[in-house]
């Protein structure tokens, strides 16, 4: 009889223990949970549009201390109500932007919820074509990744592993005057010149190099958090890099910390595949990789102001059977107001003028 009773008692004991633990765990304070609803509800919004943001919070226990609603880390509204609506929230940041709700109870338990929405530009880009004013020889072995005009010379960074270089070039002949060959493990990318130094990115190594402008000797290196390095330019104070997405990143040229990020969009899409860059008179010109287009970007907002169709520029100089790749490379001669463009493995460098359609 005792042998039969023991298993029954054991099961009862286990059941009581489990139920007791469960009951105790149920009595632990719970975090508040908030949800965010945007009206009107759409997949994409437009710069400057005003929306209503509803916040609803659920409490399992305790008392609410505060609910704070943020748009891109800027406080929009603070409330002690479980449900409230922030009206006329103006969307003045481009790209994939965040609405965040931070909720706190009087027992100091807190929680954060976020909602991402996409904001596009309210500007339809002006359409431009081009006129070729002059052209110069360009090495057909150069897989152009970075292009810069400085003090009468052309500087070019090229890519492809085993063939990546940094060169100082006589623009009239296309011949290199100085060459630095990168280690075979690196795939060279964009370049820029700032404070008598040349900065160069690499494709996937998350490493950049700093060169002495006169000798092209490596004097420093740096790392960056972007998964890939593409284009590089500067605004006279900071480096500005692209990484193949729609995001531009400003870097401090001394410690390479991130100063800010800017998302780029036109009135239809986020502008992905931003490649080689050139800062000109307060704007950034960028190649769009795998296309014949350049875009002109407002650096204060990220709005694409102009689209420049460069289709056909190499056609007269491209021999059938010759290897060629995409348009890539923009350089500006500020002293003489000259704009140059070329492409990967192009045989010519073109001085161009952009013409409104």
Number of strands: 28
Task: Specify the overall morphology.
Answer: elongated
Tally of individual domains: 2
What is the C-level CATH assignment of the largest domain?
Mainly Beta
- Which fold name is given in CATH as the topology of the largest domain? Methylamine Dehydrogenase, Chain H
**CATH homologous superfamily heading of the largest domain:** YVTN repeat-like/Quinoprotein amine dehydrogenase
Q: What is the CATH architecture annotation of the largest domain?
A: 7 Propeller
Q: Percentage of helical residues?
A: under 10%
The topology string of helices and strands comes to HEEEEEEEEEEEEEEEEEEEEEEEEEEEE
Separation of termini? 100 Å
How many helical elements?
1
Whole-number radius of gyration? 29 Å
Q: Output the strand order for the largest sheet.
A: 22-23-24-25-9-28-27-26
Structural class given helices, strands, pairing? Answer: mainly beta
Indicate the proportion of strand residues.
over 45%
Give a short account of the largest sheet: 8 strands, mixed
Mean pLDDT: 92
């Amino acid at each position: 009889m005792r042998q039969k009773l023991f298993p029954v008692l054991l099961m009862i004991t286990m059941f009581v223990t489990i139920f007791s633990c469960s009951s105790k765990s149920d009595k632990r304070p719970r975090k508040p949970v908030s949800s965010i609803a945007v009206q009107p509800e759409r997949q994409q919004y437009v710069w400057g549009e005003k929306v209503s943001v509803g916040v609803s919070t659920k409490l399992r226990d305790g008392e609410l201390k505060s609910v704070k609603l943020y748009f891109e880390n800027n406080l929009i509204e603070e409330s002690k109500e479980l449900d409230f609506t922030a009206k006329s929230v103006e969307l003045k940041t481009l790209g994939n932007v965040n609405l965040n709700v931070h909720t706190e109870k009087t027992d100091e338990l807190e929680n954060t919820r976020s909602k991402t929405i996409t904001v596009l530009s309210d500007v339809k880009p002006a359409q431009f074509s081009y006129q070729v004013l002059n052209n110069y020889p360009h090495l057909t072995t150069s897989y152009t990744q970075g292009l810069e005009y400085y003090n009468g010379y052309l500087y070019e960074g090229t890519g492809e592993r085993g063939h990546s270089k940094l060169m100082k070039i006589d623009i009239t002949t296309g011949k290199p005057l100085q060459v630095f060959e990168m280690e075979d493990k690196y795939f060279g990318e964009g370049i820029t010149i700032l404070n008598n130094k040349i900065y160069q990115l690499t494709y996937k190594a998350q490493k950049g190099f700093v060169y002495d402008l006169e000798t092209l000797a490596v004097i420093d290196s740096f790392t960056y958090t972007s998964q890939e390095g593409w284009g590089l330019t500067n605004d006279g104070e900071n480096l500005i890099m692209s990484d193949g997405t729609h995001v531009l990143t400003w870097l401090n040229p001394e410690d390479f910390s991130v100063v800010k990020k800017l998302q780029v969009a036109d009135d239809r899409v986020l502008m992905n595949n931003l490649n080689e860059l050139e800062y000109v008179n307060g704007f950034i010109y960028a190649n769009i990789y795998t296309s014949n287009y350049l875009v002109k970007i407002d650096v204060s907002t990220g709005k694409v102001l102009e689209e420049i169709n460069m289709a056909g520029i190499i056609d007269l100089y491209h021999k059938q059977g010759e290897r060629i790749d995409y348009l890539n490379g923009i350089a500006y001669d500020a002293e003489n107001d000259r704009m140059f463009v070329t492409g990967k493995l192009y045989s010519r460098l073109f001085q161009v003028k952009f013409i409104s359609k």
